[in-house]
Amino acid sequence: MGRAGMINSGGESGANDLQQAVRTAVINKRAGGTGLISGRKAFQKPMGDGVALLNAIQDVYLAAEVTIA
Questions:
Q1: What pLDDT is attached to residue 48?
Q2: CB-facing half-sphere around the CA of 42: CA atoms within 13 A
Q3: By the 8 A CB rule, do 53 and 21 touch?
């Protein structure tokens, strides 16, 4: 069956959501993870802030510089 990809859940929304989400995405990707669930962190914000957060998470997973530790 092979390996299963790990998807991390982000937790509740707070003051430093962008920084926390990027940090969590980097840690998750370095651990071999394949995604980050970010519901409240993105969708309880104004649209522009939520889109910026989702784009930052996508950038981590697309970045060739962030590799498995």
A1: 96
A2: 17
A3: yes
